[in-house]
Amino acid sequence: MAIDESEDALLDGLVRSAFQIMGVLTRIGAEHDLSLTQLRVLGILRDRRPRMSDLAAFLGLDKSTLSGLVARAESRGLMTRAPNPTDKRAIDVLITDAGRELTEQMYREARAVLAPATGRLDERQRRQLAQLLEPVITPPLSPT
Amino acid sequence: MAIDESEDALLDGLVRSAFQIMGVLTRIGAEHDLSLTQLRVLGILRDRRPRMSDLAAFLGLDKSTLSGLVARAESRGLMTRAPNPTDKRAIDVLITDAGRELTEQMYREARAVLAPATGRLDERQRRQLAQLLEPVITPPLSPT
DNA sequence: TATTGTTATACTCTATAACTATA
DNA sequence: TATAGTTATAGAGTATAACAATA
Fold first, then answer.
1. Which of A4, B38, B94, B100 is 20 to 30 A from A122 (CA-CA)?
2. Which residues in chain B have Cβ-Cβ distances shorter than 8 Å to A136?
3. pLDDT digits over B64-92, tens only?
């Protein structure tokens, strides 16, 4: 079987861009006393209201890890817990208004920090890059 | 000032693909008892021999953090430390043969895990995606 | 019985501060 | 004086195991 160079080159590019993006998000999160995972959860909660166990599964974390993470964010007023309407065992996780505002601010900061990088592409190339990434990305949690 | 949709869409795609790639690398690293950072350092050392402080700066970590990280990897035979030839204060970090083999194995594993995702593009699209990512990526440490 | 979530515990990663050696 | 690296220490993130409540 022949070696597929295009896959190697793509993997390399994806990995390097991933580390770069993670570096930016880690720093922006840290400036607001948030871990990368907390920042990620806030991003997910912007348009979803998952139960604890689904969120843990999607993040690849143990449910006990999420208990602590949500508790810390809740004590800061960024997330809330609410009983799931249909399953009395389950707890839904929700973002608060303050959490939403903070998330959007951090997103704007990330956009500004990465502007020099994304600006090396013209608008047509940016659209094309976003389109090419789309099929590669795993679908996120279904809404609800 | 008008909102630039193409930048928002691109940022969103980059962030989501970054979390996906990080998830894969984190899991593969964990299967080999390596943290994501250790995996990343091994990747960097494949073709570089940086001093501790340059590596720490590039990774955005404190030098004390790197001391521990390299010590743990050294005790497992994956990296080595050697005095810098020109500055007696400095220590260079090198990958060992065992470290190189492990790194390449993990890279192959990542490639296999991501094959279903990258395979949703044809070869021409993969090349195009890799090319579009290139300008966005921050240049890594200069060799040596 | 199986699943959801929490708590107690232990380990790893990370930064800060204090120190030694060299520039 | 400033820089390179190490060590001691403390805080946050994570998983495992044991538990209570519900399906």
1. A4
2. 17, 20, 117-118, 120-121, 129
3. 999 999 999 999 999 999 999 999 999 99
Sign of the Cα pseudo-torsion (A140, A143, B3, B4, in order): positive
CA distance A98 to A104: 10
Answer whether any strand D atom is within 7 A of the Cβ of A124. no
Domain ranges of chain A: 28-116
On chain A, the residues whose CB falls within 8 A of the CB of B25 are: 15, 18
CATH ID of A28-116, from 3.10.450.120, 3.50.30.10, 1.10.10.10, 1.10.155.10: 1.10.10.10
User: The whole model's pTM is what?
Assistant: 0.93
Q: Is the dihedral of CA B129, B134, B140, B144 positive or negative?
A: positive
CA nearest to B136, candidates A96, A95, A132: A132
For residue B90, say whether its CB is under 7 Å from any atom of strand D. Answer: yes
Q: Using the CA of B90, which nucleotide's C1' is the nearest one? A: D4
Separation of CA A81 and C1' D23 in angstroms? 21
Q: Report the gap between the CA of A47 and the closest CA in chain B (Å).
A: 14
- CA B21/CA A138 separation, integer angstroms: 10
Token output for A65: 């890890």
Dihedral angle sign, alpha carbons of residues B45, B51, B52, B54: negative
